[in-house]
Amino acid sequence: MITTPLVDALNNITRDAAAAFISGAEFERENMHVHHNDGGRVSRLFLFGNLIAERNRDSIRVTLAGWPTTTTRARLNGLLELLNINRRFYQLRKIQYFGSTINNTAREISAHEWLKL
Q1: What does the pLDDT look like over 56-86, one tens digit per residue?
Q2: What's the CA gap between 105 and 1, in Å, rounded?
Q3: With 50 as the cut, is the pLDDT of residue 8 above it?
Q4: Which residue in 67, 86, 63, 94 sits closest to 76, CA to CA?
Q5: Cβ density class 18-51: b for 16+ within 10 Å, e for less
Q6: Contact in structure between 61 and 109 (CB atoms under 8 Å)
Q7: Pairwise CA distance, residues 82 & 111, whole Å
Q8: In terms of DSSP bridges, do strands 27-29 and 106-109 run parallel, antiparallel, or are they unpaired?
Q9: Distance (Å, whole) CA 24 – CA 99
Q10: Which whole-number Å values give the CA distances from 7 to 3, 10, 16, 45, 77, in the listed order?
Q11: What percent of the chain has pLDDT over 70?
């Protein structure tokens, strides 16, 4: 079953980094940073120097970047929450899943896979 964190339950760094990614603001704090290129048309969200989300004019895509950790899932789920996207990352028996919070359907994913939202 997929659990969904509430926006006010998100820790400050997750919320602030996700908000910067969405708004186009630069951000750097502790293990997170957001950079924008190409006149702000491309936004990238990094965790520990690993690219975990990228947005361009046409799409947003996300990845666990080979690090299926609680922190990586929490950062991406916080971003999905602020984007009002009803899908989440979770782990069950060391297997990574990405699925809907509406109908509790999910599919197994690779920790290196890029997912287009």
Answers
A1: 988 999 999 999 999 999 999 999 999 999 9
A2: 8
A3: no
A4: 63
A5: bebbbeeeebeeeebbbebeeeeeebbbbbeeee
A6: no
A7: 22
A8: unpaired
A9: 27
A10: 13, 5, 11, 18, 10
A11: 91
